[in-house]
Known about the structure:
The chain is of the alpha/beta class. 28% of the residues lie in helices and 33% in strands. The strands form two sheets. It has a seven-stranded mixed beta sheet, sandwiched between helices. Strands 6-7-8-9 form a four-stranded antiparallel beta sheet, with no helix packed on it.
Amino acid sequence: MDLYKSSALYNQNMSQNQQSKLLDFYRKVFEDYDITTLHDCSIGAGGTTLPLAKLGYKISGSDLSENLLKKAKENLKEIEYDVELFISDFRSLKTNLQNTYDCIISTGNSLPHVNNEDVRDFIKNISNKINDRGLIYIDIRNWDKILKERPIFTPRDPFVMTKEEHTSLYQIWDWHDNGSVDFIFATSTDKMGKHEKVSFVFAPTYYPLKLKDYEKILNDFGFEIRKCFDMDYIWNYNQGKTKHGEFEKDFDEISWYSILAQKIK
């Protein structure tokens, strides 16, 4: 099953706890900037973007997945937020975005779904859709760390853990010669001590890009990184690990981070 054609992402980050953490996080990220309009070019089902609407920003969104956009509409409607949503590959935003924005964001590690040259084209194309002194915000996995470790098999938190049923989730990393990787999620279910079934969900190919490469691309098209943020506590990664609380010192231990860059020319 294709991850983006399934319902697996419908309720992602929609719990009250996650919404609260994201709301506090975004408040900190954007507190020094006078912005009103934001466009999320990989909005998915909207769970990661919903807190921005709650903070009072004027949000619009786009995504390749029609079914996720329908769910995003429902999720935002629940807080009585009327949002403009449309289908678009983020590489086509130069054509599909009719307005300019104070900030364009890409959430959920979505940008690495396109190859590195396409990332350059994406930043180049949206630069004209961002207002003077406007912002780009990206959140992504730490591909620097992943490329050092090159994991093959990662156990995830179980879905169900009772006497009667045990449903476990495993992530399989299928690396290719060109450095790209496919994610395969295997769900294994045992009931009453007997194996029942295994199901597989496939995510589109990822093309790793390191932080220094993002920085160069952003600089090439008139943006300067203002700050990077450790997001591990949002997704409950690396719990129990000791960190310094400084992004640069902690970088090798961070699994997920975000970049905030400002248009300077």
